[in-house]
Design goal:
Pfam families: MR_MLE_C, MR_MLE_N. It catalyses: L-fuconate = 2-dehydro-3-deoxy-L-fuconate + H2O. Its cofactor is Mg(2+). The chain has a domain of 248 residues: TIM Barrel. Helix content is 44%, strand content 13%. The strands form three sheets. It has a five-stranded parallel sheet with strand order 5-6-7-8-9. The protein has a four-stranded mixed sheet with strand order 10-4-12-11, with helices on one face. It has a three-stranded antiparallel sheet with strand order 1-2-3. α7 runs parallel beside α17, α10 runs antiparallel to α17 and α11 runs parallel beside α12. It is globular and about 70 Å long.
């Protein structure tokens, strides 16, 4: 008699919020008061090894409860799944989740439901890597190219990337992979920092943090712009004076501008030699990005953190609308869809510089870039991962920076596991922090 297969037994969800708005951490022209938050999911099983799958999607406060509800709506597709089959082929669940016809109507493949799918799918990959006793980047880098191709949904992108194209790219990526893995382990993956550049910071704080970034080995920093041109001119002048001419300075408008406004504003800031202008307009406006790119060169155009799916990424690449593609580990449909986007970028020869300016995003996306370097693009030239220096202490396997580089994770999984005490303290609205905060505010109002 064959043993009973082990299964997923529960999908637990948590609304976790951190009060980052109180220090203006994360503030930008479109999001002046973000409370960095995670709609957090834990997959539990009946396996003896006790491993759990952890995943989340990032929000900035209010609305996190909506995102948690969306994750909960996916439970029926996950609970009861045979564990071995799920971890051997996460693509089966990915296809089932994006194919739920009644939930698909809310997208399709975009918005709150799609982000919820990404959280669940990422939790499956975390579980698979833990069961394989390897970090996710290594699991992906060592995987058979044909299997990786099987994890990608080519619907709607086959006019730009076929399964045959993807297989050829991945097979070519295996050449020299062992040497690149050794270099990655020895030197890490280059990062850049946004920590000095939040819009709400004073010039003094900007100067201090920018100088510290250079001292810490970063060769690129980023400033938020877009609220007031005179203010941006002053802040860029302050930043350039602090870092000197040899450090790259990127600017990020967070979707603030119309097309022509983006051109005028970027040209006005060109005297400070910005390396790229990020999210100059709506993330859905492919043609505007193409027009802006033509008009502001040699300043590069970067976007992607709010791009909703592989189809829009495909169009940005087909239209020649971006110089730098920015994936987000928790915006699209999880690892599977990010594999598609990385393959599209490799097909078009466009560098990927991920977004990571949120709780846990640095922890996640480092794995995708490291896989890309070792087993797909084969280079870190003009490639950097965003780094933000806060909230890492809430994770059991936080990022480690060395001389401006991400050290390769060695712990099994997707680096997504949050500390139990952090979950208990910052779950909204009744976690210890929020309950005490509510009582304090009530007392002050009495």
């Amino acid at each position: 008699m064959s043993p009973t297969p082990r299964r997923v037994t529960a999908v637990d969800t948590y609304d976790i919020r951190f009060p980052t708005s109180r220090e203006l951490d994360g503030s930008d022209a479109m999001n002046p008061d973000p409370d960095y938050s995670a709609a957090y999911v834990v997959l539990r099983t009946d396996a003896e090894d006790g491993h759990e799958g952890h995943g989340f999607t990032f929000t900035i406060g209010r609305g996190n409860d909506v995102q948690v509800a969306a994750v909960q709506a996916l439970r029926a597709h996950v609970v009861g799944r045979p564990l071995d089959a799920l971890c051997a082929d996460p693509g089966t669940l990915h296809r089932d989740l994006i194919g739920d016809s009644q939930l698909r109507w809310l997208g399709p493949e975009k918005g709150v439901m799609h982000m919820a799918i990404g959280a669940v799918v990422n939790a499956v990959w975390d579980l698979a890597a833990k069961r394989a006793a390897t970090p996710l980047w290594k699991l992906l880098a060592d995987a058979d190219p044909a299997w990786l191709v099987s994890q990608v949904d080519f619907r709607y992108i086959a006019d730009a990337l076929t399964p045959e194209d993807a297989l050829a790219l991945l097979r070519a990526g295996r050449d020299g992979a062992a040497a690149r893995e050794a270099r990655l382990r020895a030197h890490g993956y280059p990062g850049y920092t946004t920590s000095p550049g939040w819009l709400g910071y004073s010039d003094e704080k900007l100067t201090r943090l920018a100088r510290q970034a250079v001292a810490d080995g970063f060769t690129q920093i980023k400033l938020k712009v877009g609220a007031d041109l005179a203010d941006d001119l002053r802040r860029c002048r302050v930043a350039r004076a602090a870092i000197g001419p040899g450090i790259r300075l990127a600017i990020d408008a967070n979707q603030r501008w119309n097309r022509d406004e983006a051109v005028r504003w970027t040209r006005a800031l060109a005297e400070f030699d910005p390396y790229w202008v990020e999210e100059p307009t709506s993330p859905d406006d492919v043609l505007a990005h193409a027009a802006i790119r033509d008009a502001v060169a040699p300043v590069k155009v970067a976007t992607g953190e709010h791009v909703q799916n592989r189809i829009v990424f495909k169009q940005l690449l087909q239209a020649g609308a971006v110089d730098v593609l920015q994936i987000d580990a928790a915006r699209v449909g999880g690892v599977n869809e990010n594999l598609a986007i990385l393959l599209l970028a490799a097909r078009f020869g466009v560098p990927v510089c991920p977004h990571a300016g949120g709780v846990g995003l640095c922890e996640l996306v480092q794995h995708l870039s490291m896989f890309d370097y070792v087993a797909l693009s084969g280079t870190t030239e003009d490639r950097v991962i965003e780094y933000v220096d806060h909230l890492h202490e809430h994770f059991t396997d936080p990022v480690r920076m060395r001389a401006g580089h991400y050290a390769a994770p060695t712990a099994p999984g997707f680096s997504a596991t949050m500390r139990a005490e952090s979950i208990a303290r910052f779950t909204y609205p009744d976690g210890a922090f929020w309950a005490a905060d509510r009582a304090q505010r009530k007392g002050a109002a009495a």
